[in-house]
Amino acid sequence: MEIRKVGVLGCGLMGSGIAQVAAQSGHPTTVLEVSKELLDAGLKRIDQFLSNGVSRGKVRPEEKQATLSRLAGTTDYAALADCDLVIEAVVENLPAKQEAFQRLERTLKPEAILASNTSSLSITEMSVATKRPQRFVGLHFFNPVPLMKLVEITRTIQTDPEVEETVLKFAKGLGKVPIRALDRTGFIVNRLLVPYILDAIRALEEGVGTIVDIDQGMKLGCGHPMGPFTLLDLVGIDTTYYIANIMFDEFRERRFAPPPLMKRMVLAGFHGRKTGKGFYDYASEPPKPNDFLTRS
Ligand code: CAA
Q: Which of 119, 120, 127, 290 is the catalytic position?
């Protein structure tokens, strides 16, 4: 099966990135949001990313125009009826995802493939809530989607091997490097990344080092492109908190348990870049580290 038309559920940070790369790679792409406001914000993010790419000389102006011309936004599930592949990137919450898939299936053609961009929920649990668990895979992109090369492809014990191969080919066509993972919470990357990130927060709570020094340590000492707190602010402290809780529920191991500071930051609305405040404060440039632990 050839994937031509792509649908994306959700036009947030991940959904907008996925819709952008699909349209940029030549696929007619329709992205769905629950409200016109959220849709407009997501489409604006795509426009800005492409414009930024043009300013950097990474995207040709005509490529930006062609990408936008292949991209449509909608709040109506019926607009996705003729998609060959629909990638779900809604909030990291099982009932919300299951409901989105069920609404989608009311109009979707039977042979279409369903994929979830979940980073921690069970692909099997989502797939069995649909009428096509054999045509269901995990397709996990990384943030920021247009720049990050990796995609994790997850099959369940029910996934048709031909579907997995089709999606693998599709991911390569987006210019991504796919790796295969089994349906285990966190797949490959988050299984290793989440305990590391949570340990960075524990080190901060214990006063081992400051936000800036821990970030510098991992950047310059291990060659990471960004330190754990800068990364947390990019991915979203709320998002990482949900992922950690799901992983803790699955494995019952302390290394996946979110530290107390993280929970309080989520409750207080310190979600990272998207709320202007996380481990760093983004009101000024360069962002300043938050001193909530050392303030007397
Ligand atoms: N359009 C096109 N190209 C762009 C661009 C744009 N809008 N913006 C930047 N670029 C290009 C730049 O020109 C540059 O290209 P070259 O390497 O050819 O020079 C490249 O992208 C990198 O951009 P910058 O130099 O501006 O920034 P950087 O070097 O600091 O890299 C980054 C930015 C790619 C985000 C890098 O910091 C990085 O890799 N960070 C780690 C991100 C990460 O770990 N993400 C995974 C998070 S976990 C996750 O997502 C999964 C989950 O489930 C939670």
A: 119
- Exposed, middle or buried: residue 271 (CB in 10 Å: 0-12, 13-18, 19+)? buried
User: Can 152 be counted among the known catalytic residues?
Assistant: yes
| Total Cβ atoms within 10 A of residue 7 | 30
Active site residue 143: no
Condensed to tens digits (0 to 9), the pLDDT of residues 169-186 reads: 999 999 999 999 999 999
The CA distance from 191 to 195, in Å, is: 7
Helix (H, G, I), strand (E, B) or coil at 155: strand
Helix and strand element counts for the chain (H, E): 11, 10
pLDDT profile of the chain (296 residues), mean per 10? 96 97 98 98 98 98 98 98 98 93 96 96 96 98 97 98 98 98 96 98 95 97 98 96 94 97 97 96 95 69
Domains of the chain: 6-182 (3.40.50.720), 191-290 (1.10.1040.10)
Distance 117 CA to ligand 1 centre (A): 19
Kindly report, residue by residue over 134-161, the tens digit of the pLDDT.
999 999 999 999 999 999 999 999 999 9
Pocket test for ligand 1, best of 44, 47, 58, 123 (most atoms within 8 A of CB): 58
The verdict on whether 119 is a catalytic residue reads: yes
- Rounded Cα distance between 293 and 286, Å, is 20
Instruction: Indicate the residue type of 25.
Output: S
Residue 111 is given by DSSP the state T
Find out whether 139 and 126 touch, Cβ atoms under 8 Å: no
Looking at this protein, which amino acid is placed at residue 161? Answer: P
Nearest CA to ligand 1 atom 2: 53
